[in-house]
Design goal:
Order of helices and strands of chain A: HHHHEHEHHEHHEHEEHHHHEEHEEEHEE
Strand order of the largest sheet of chain A: 1-4-5-13
Distance between the termini of chain A: 49 Å
Helix content of chain A: 40-55%
CATH superfamily of the largest domain in chain A: Nucleoside phosphorylase/phosphoribosyltransferase catalytic domain
Oligomer: homodimer
Shape of chain A: globular
Radius of gyration of chain A: 23 Å
CATH topology of the largest domain in chain A: Pyrimidine Nucleoside Phosphorylase, Chain A, domain 2
Number of strands of chain A: 13
Strand content of chain A: 5-15%
Largest interface: A-B, 45 and 44 residues
Structural class of chain A: alpha/beta
Chain lengths: 451, 451
């Protein structure tokens, strides 16, 4: 167990720092300083610290954890590794929301135009589908012509013109995160709360926002299965946001069942548009309004969350949110007529209904498996290179708590890839538990952290 | 915290294994199976698992530990990644000893010829100097012409002809260890007992030996400072040896002071030759005899350790060990006349005496710093590329427990590099603590593990 002789050379000056000493410090449970974290993150962004040292450090962080202060320093360093957009010249606050990912979660498509219509700016940088969950960018691309690969100038122009804009992570945004995220994926260090927090936050803060609403999903269809895990991450996210000077709140929301009824890219755009017409499923409508309300409130556009809710509902009822969405679709090259004509969305050639074998109540849904069935049909990617089938997906007819009679439809499968239909149906057949007794209803919003 | 969707693909068959799943299992404190460990070690040897995954796994092992069973499996897999020498045709047992490294430890140069003279085979694969400690290969190369870079065929020929042979790790021996060791050095994963054990053992077992004696150094000049750490490693080494079917014992020996009096490559060869002439310092002579005795006993050449001691002493007194050493030096291309004529060893141009400032007893020595002073003079390497000065080093005149009067020599510095003399002297000046009261004597051999 040779203590490295060169250890003596390590000082507090970056010029004399060595990655191995910082890895050792974290391995032994130490707390890294601002300079030390900056050294590693800078090394990740500029390529001066090799992959093998970064991944040893990531594993040490995963095993030993990071303090709240360290997590904030890591977030700031990762943010600082790239460009931060400056929308300070705009006349109103900039707000955004981030979801940790779930099945059927198309709230971004609704809340961005609602909040923009209410007079705030929503510069939304989103991701692609991951695992069994969909991604906002993939969904938007189901609209013919919609471009998400905007340059920073185009993004700014869309934001100024429409009040909201949808983009993906550009090479300029948090390049350290890009490198570290790729490593985490292959080194079993994805699960560290500190690393999750810094990764999420560094990208969101690059939007130059003033306030941020987190939607932390918990349950079978979420990445965090237990409420405890979700609350812990929510507290870390909100604390980190506050440490870096942002207003923030986190909603812990139910993901034991899909959100809304539709899963799959075009299907989710369709359902989002239904919400913007005031006709969406109750759970999805309610969550969109609450998320938008918090964004409006934290953005200083309402004196209370209640007032924010009324404002959000008004934006939907008046059609102003729909107008905003129409404008941003057009601005980003998409066919904006889709807002008023859902038949302009891609539609699958085949539909297959899956029916209940017995009567009773739906008491449990294998929500993750339902999401995965949509991926199998082409609604998501199993490998990064896979192409998406925008029309493929699943429409759920019965959800937890619903009464069902034998022979009634449980869900419908929308498919083009016939060769994958069997696998998807097989997955779905074991995804609904029907029992004689109605289950207890669980609330959609389980807790609010940081309010 | 996405659970990797591809996790479902991981099975027990190597074809379906993925490194990331094994890293995750270890990260979560799981125990890897034989197949799983083989997959990673094989991937290290063949280059099919990338550095960044290996280093994440090494860090997970360092943080979570390995069970005894896993450590043995890791040892076997690393051994199996390369060639294992087969000396089964030789008429006697093959034995070796391994030291965890200390200051002034030249026992290998003595015990190999002693044990070979006693009728056993000692196929000794050694290393270079590391940090503040010297290496057997560097010491042997202080003998003019001595070649340590033997091919396997040359190594075998030397062993057959002389009963012992000295070589370095060849590319054929434990290639997985070579890759993992290089990574450990730069990822702060050197200190894991399981990794230390597997690294040591895989190289030693490649010698095709039947029994192994460990000399686990503890104290200021050792890599393990506390006896507790030393005992833990010793128990792991002995247990692992037994699990893979080898006889083994570990001596926990004192390294709070240098072993013998001479530190530096030629100086240590000189002192080893003094021991072989029956005239070496007491501590060094005693340890060499005990180590040789255990090797002789475990090799089945004596009925007891006591009898082994008598045999070892007889090999020295009769000059037979010296004859063996002379033979092996000649066999490996070295100037064997050095055995009878110490002036044939390289000698430094300058000598500087450091004297005691006050009278009393030496109560403490900064043993590691003394070793490092020898490195500074050129006796070791600060960087891998540095050249060794075989003549440079330090001769200690007073050790812990010795009475000393002000003005008496504490040590002598042998140097060629005048520009480094100042630094070395400065290090040595703070390396001796002299107090009025004599310290308690501590035993040279603190414990024996596995006897």
């Amino acid at each position: 167990m040779p203590p490295d002789p060169r250890l003596l050379m390590a000082g507090s000056s970056p010029a004399l720092m060595r990655a191995v000493d910082l890895i050792r410090k974290k391995r032994d449970g130490g707390e890294l300083t601002r300079d030390e974290i900056a050294f590693l993150v800078d090394g990740a962004a500029r390529g001066t610290v090799p992959d093998y040292q970064l991944s040893a450090w990531l594993m040490a962080v995963t095993c030993r954890g990071m303090s709240r202060a360290e997590t904030a320093l890591l977030t700031e360093a990762m943010l600082g590794s790239g460009e931060v957009m400056d929308f300070s010249a705009l006349g109103a606050a900039k707000v955004d929301k981030h979801s940790t990912g779930g099945v059927g979660d198309k709230t971004s498509l609704v809340v961005a135009p609602v909040v923009a219509a209410a007079g705030l700016y929503v510069p939304m940088i989103s991701g692609r589908g991951l695992g069994h969950t969909g991604g906002t960018l993939d969904k938007l691309e189901a609209i013919r012509g919609f471009r998400v690969d905007l340059s920073l100038a185009e993004f700014r122009a869309a934001l100024e013109a429409c009040g909201c804009a949808f983009g993906g992570q550009t090479p300029e945004i948090a390049p350290a995160d890009k490198r570290l995220y790729a490593l985490r994926d292959v080194t079993a260090t994805v699960e560290s709360p500190a690393l999750i927090c810094a990764s999420i936050m560094s990208k969101k803060l690059a939007e130059g926002i003033d306030a941020l609403v987190f939607d932390v999903k918990v349950g079978d269809g979420a990445f965090m299965k237990s409420e405890g895990e979700g609350v812990a991450l929510a507290e870390l996210l909100v604390d980190t946001a506050k440490r870096v000077g942002k207003r923030a709140v986190a909603l812990i929301t139910d993901m034991d069942k899909p959100l809304g009824r539709k899963i799959g890219n075009a299907l989710e755009v369709e359902e989002a548009l239904e919400v913007l017409r005031g006709r969406g499923p109750d759970d999805l409508c309610a969550l969109c309004v609450v998320l938008a309300a918090w964004m409006i409130f934290l953005g200083g556009r309402s004196a209370s969350v209640e007032e924010g809710k009324r404002l959000a509902e008004e934006m939907i009822a008046s059609g102003r949110a729909r107008d905003t969405f129409r404008r941003v679709i057009k601005q980003q090259g998409g066919d904006e007529r889709v807002v008023d004509d859902l038949t302009r969305l891609p539609r699958a050639r085949g539909t297959e209904i899956m029916r209940a074998r017995n009567s009773g109540f739906v008491t449990r849904m294998a929500c993750e498996r339902i999401g995965r069935a949509s991926v199998v049909l082409g609604g998501g990617r199993e490998k990064k290179e896979d192409a998406i089938d925008p029309a493929a997906g699943v429409v759920v007819e019965k959800k937890i708590g619903d009464a069902v009679r034998a022979g009634e439809p449980l869900c419908a499968v929308h498919y083009n890839a016939e060769e994958r239909l069997g696998e998807a149906l097989q997955m779905l057949e074991t995804s609904f538990v029907i029992a004689a007794e109605a289950p207890q209803r669980t609330p959609l919003i389980r807790r609010i952290v940081g309010a």
